[in-house]
Amino acid sequence: MSRERRVPEDSADYARWLADRIEERGARTTTRLSPTAAWFVAMALRGYARLLDGREAAEMLFTISFEDDRYVQIQSACQAGEVAWEAFHLAIAAAPDRRIVLRHSGRIIGEHGGTAGSGPMLITATGAGTPDPS
């Protein structure tokens, strides 16, 4: 059994790591938490990790998200435009039937409509969409 130790930090990665350790410990040994309580604590930490993911994504200049009428799911976030465009095209290849949006500081700069055969669109300064040349 390895005893990995980590310095506590306020990050989504750490919250997920801690949730996994609590869930593992609750499942294999008697602790002060019942197995059910350990599961609920781990679930709460994973929810907190999702909250931190959103906060961390908000600090990034570019975000790529899957969107539908009710939900927006951040798929990736980064600081570099070239990386963002590549991630956008990879997301389209992975899920061509979904609506995928690329934003720069909250402004939509690329959009895939979610229908097979509709390619990505560049959003111009006038707001009109033109086919992406890449």
> What structural class results from the helix and strand content?
alpha+beta
What is the rounded distance between the termini? 50 Å
Major sheet details: 6 strands, antiparallel
| Percent strand | 15-25%
Q: Work out the count of structural domains.
A: 2
Number of strands: 6
Order of helices and strands: HHEEHEEEE
Low-confidence stretches: 124-130
What's the number of helices? Answer: 3
General form: elongated
Rg, nearest Å: 20 Å
Overall average pLDDT = 75
Fraction of helical residues:
40-55%
How would you write the strand order of the largest sheet? 2-1-3-4-5-6
Question: Could you characterize what this model shows?
Answer:
The chain is an alpha+beta fold and 134 residues long. The protein folds into 2 domains: 12-58; 62-131, no CATH class. It is 41% helix and 23% strand. It has 3 helices and 6 strands; from the N terminus they run ααββαββββ. The protein has helices spanning 12-28, 35-58, 81-94; strands spanning 62-67, 72-78, 99-104, 107-112, 121-123, 129-131. The chain has a 6-stranded antiparallel sheet with strand order 2-1-3-4-5-6, sandwiched between helices. Helix 1 runs antiparallel to helix 2. The longest helix is centred in the middle third of the chain and has 24 residues, at 35-58. The radius of gyration is 20 Å and the shape is elongated. The N and C termini lie far apart (50 Å). Residues 124-130 have low confidence and may be disordered.
